[in-house]
Amino acid sequence: MAEAKIKVLVIDDSALIRHLLTEIINSHDDLQVVACAPDPIIARDLIKLHNPDVLTLDVEMPRMDGLEFLERLMRLRPMPVLMVSSLTEAGSDVTLKALELGAVDFIAKPKVDIAAGLKRYSDLIAEKLRVCAAAKVCSRQRMMPAAPRHLLGKGYASTEKVIFVGASTGGTEAIRRFLQPLPADMPAIMITQHMPEHFTRTFAERLDKLCTLHVVEAQHNTRILPGHVYIAPGNAHLEIVRSGANYMTALNEGPLVNRHRPSVDVLFLSAARVAGANALGVILTGMGKDGALGMKAMKEAGAVTLAQDEQSCVVFGMPKEAIALGVVDEVLPLDALPERVIERVGQRTNRV
User: Fold this and answer.
1) Which residues carry this modification: 4-aspartylphosphate (predicted)?
2) Is 45 among the catalytic positions?
């Protein structure tokens, strides 16, 4: 007996996009478009009729925009949503708002030649739909944590400590919840989140407004300072290097690693080489295995290693792979990680 296909509802006001997505999705044996809607009003009835496993959702649509629809959906009938976003600064800001509202992931429309561009993304679109369909989705009320309780720092004496964080699907919200409670006197934090160009700068700017730490999109050859968070830019690997007595950032556009650039493994491997036992690694929600081998190298170099637990992950892929290698010191719920990181960094600092 054949396995049931993943049922997809496509919501987009563009007839061309609806046609292209239907063609792409239906070309995969395990996926099926059960209906298309030109706006959210029609989509509401189609959801009741077809009970899809996942939605693809555009933002700018007549009668009700995608964000308003998404907010209502996640409050009343939470279900997996894959956003279809524009590769622009404005598009990236709206997409991040959608992820805050509960969308699982997004695909970016090419700037030119949309038809050919989307077809090139066929396998990626299919993979993201599969991940979305299996992702853990909560109601809007359950998803939003209480206002963060800002934790107290310990007056860290050493500037040698650096925290390294990796994430993918579900990571934008996980990173926000991880960073917001942290005090301004934390050691430097370097983050690789799988995200395309144009999105990472907007992501960093949004986090900077929400956090006591100073959050920036990483640039090449910048001194790494306590109290700062450095986000890997889309389409560039981020590494830590040493220049004399200082830690510095390094960016490169080398080959994809685990199909990603930026790659968590690239960041974590550099942490093992350069920071050694002065590093602390955190692996958060995400599909795939990126970061597992890098975390293994960090552990072997003496670093503390932490992972987000399955229950609090949107997708328990990357943490699961690292845990399976036996290289994670502690597995914790997302909201317990900030305080534990402070304790761990303080313990290590006290031993210096």
Assistant:
1) 58
2) no
The predicted-structure confidence for 48-105, as pLDDT tens digits, reads as follows 999 999 999 988 777 888 899 999 999 999 999 999 887 666 678 888 999 999 999 9
Question: Exactly one of 85, 86, 92, 168 is catalytic; which is it?
Answer: 168
Q: Which of 137, 42, 39 minimizes the C-alpha distance to 80?
A: 137
Pairing of strands 246-252, 237-243: antiparallel
Phi-psi sector, 103: left (phi>0), alpha (psi -120 to 50), beta: beta
Do 6-143 and 162-350 show the same overall fold?
yes
Gap between the Cα atoms of 162 and 57, Å rounded: 38
335: annotated active-site residue:
no
Query: What single DSSP character describes residue 129?
Result: H
Which one from 12, 194, 263, 312 is the annotated catalytic residue? 194
Catalytic-residue membership of 243: no
- Taking the domain 6-143, which CATH number applies? 3.40.50.2300
Q: Domain locations in the chain? A: 6-143, 162-350
Calculate the average pLDDT of the chain.
90
Q: Would you say residue 149 has pLDDT above 70?
A: no
What's the pLDDT tens digit per position in 280-325?
Answer: 999 999 999 999 999 999 999 999 999 999 999 999 999 999 999 9
Strands 105-109, 162-167: parallel, antiparallel or unpaired by DSSP? unpaired
Could you tell me the two tokens for 276? 């050694």
Which phi and psi angles does 22 have, rounded to 5°?
A: -60, -45
Is it true that domain 162-350 has CATH number 3.40.50.2000? no
